[in-house]
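Lab notebook, bench 4. We co-purified these components, and the gel suggests they stay together. Before we commit to crystallization screens, I want a quick structural picture of the whole thing.
Request: model the full complex, all chains together.
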Amino acid sequence: MRISLKEDMMGSFGIKFERFWRVFYEYNGYVRVLEGLRNTVTIAVFGLIIGVLIGTAIAAVEVSPKKSIFSRVLNKICVFYVALFRGTPIVVQLLVTYYVVLPLIGINMSPVNVCILVFGFNSGAYVSEIMRGGILSVDPGQMEAGRAVGLSYGVTMIKVVVPQAVKNILPTIGNEFIALIKETSVVSFVGALDLYVAFNFIGTNNYEFMVPYLVMALIYIILVMFISLLIKTMERSLRRSDRSSRP
Amino acid sequence: MIEVVDLSLNFGDLKVLKDISFTIDKGEKIAIIGPSGSGKSTLLRCLNFMEEPSSGSIFFEGTDIADSAVNLDLHRRDMGMVFQQFNLFNNKTVIENIMMAPLHIDLHNLRKLKRQNVFFKIRNIFSKDKKPLNEISSDKTRLKMEIRDNAMELLRRIGLEDKRDVYPSTLSGGEKQRIAIIRALAMNPKVMLFDEPTSSLDPEMVGEVLDLIRVLADDGMTMVIVTHEMGFAKEVATRILFMDDGRIAEDSPPDQMFSNPQNPRTKEFLSKVKAL
Ligand SMILES: Nc1ncnc2c1ncn2[C@@H]1O[C@H](COP(=O)(O)OP(=O)(O)OP(=O)(O)O)[C@@H](O)[C@H]1O
Ligand SMILES: [Mg+2]
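Here is the predicted assembly.
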């Protein structure tokens, strides 16, 4: 009597799934998974918000006319900042911030908050490049018109140029958000609980990692697909507001 | 009102404006004509410092705006500028376009007065001579309403009040340019600068824009217009500057400029324009 290899696999898969389900559901593994999911999304969302703010500020400095010494120095700082955060791995940035910088300046912060900060700073460097492209894609006549009616460079930038730039680069910002979601899978390096930690916990309890990691992969895929859909909807409604009058 | 003295401007090695001097009195309508690349736009843009001169002075009501102490944003509020490409704010509706600058400026001033008052109050607690507080006669909603009323009044003047809430991308070129003009007027400028206001319009829309400029001229607005519309220049301008190769080659009233030009370059240019 021979059992085919495939059947054997399927059979054992069933058992594996049962064991996974027990820890996941009956022993409250899902609580950790949900918390991990929440942390992942929290870090990515707030990281992106900080990133967009920093990135926009850097881009605005970089494209401004560099007349005064002050603005030239500011520009140099921005260039250095971008080089620093693009030139080192995010894991190194996390570790250095958590174990070196924060203890040195004596600040106590929860791992998740540290991750939000570091991912925000890191993302700021990337978003600045995206945003610079976006700002340069806006017709220079828009800035001229703002200046001509007596608005300052900064006000025209914030109220006229950046909103149009953001619309141009929204798909790219969406990609940056998705990149952030994926990159958060390293936050366990500084002890933050994310999806990886949650599923790793389930696996360790069962001495079985196949199903937990499979489910983890599925959750990431669904999350990313959901975000892509969200961005598409947003883009469409923005494009519509451009063409017709307001309700 | 405006006095330009020895104005020069170089873009790198290219000398675009060479030692230009002239004056503009209140109420004058100056047309600037001349061949392409002669520096007309650059000269116009120097007047509100959109282009920074390499040397020379520009006096506006007595103050040299090339002086680094001058607040350019304040200066520019006295000078409305209208561009060839309209340059309406694409992310704002028509009424927002018109209201934006006045609203921003008034709210900014209001906030400044309020900040000052807080400072005065604190100071008055500690010091003997009590400083009176700034009188704040208006509030945010009132200001906003006044500015909106003014914007609506301007829109009514050009018959586009029903376009109030649409975005610029839905407007025709002529509508865009007329709105660009009243956007500049909403600041109550003392001078209007036009850089080829009709050059990127379809022929059938040129008239409506010129009509509006004509109305402003009749109202006594001081204006400087760079234009290729010789007929319009002749009709509206009180003085015409002919520019050639970065200099003002001729500066005379329209009759003389068109019937009896002095400079050979002017003659050549006008005969070419007529031939078209
Ligand atoms: N930002 C700039 N950088 C370098 N050169 C410039 C710049 N702006 C204008 N120029 C040059 O200065 C010269 C004068 O330009 P300007 O736009 O003032 O001419 P114009 O008389 O307005 O011509 P047109 O009738 O074609 O509008 C041109 O040779 C132009 O190429
Ligand atoms: Mg020009």
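DSSP finds nine helices and no strands in chain A. Worth comparing against the SEC data before the next meeting. The first helix of chain A runs from residue 5 to 26.
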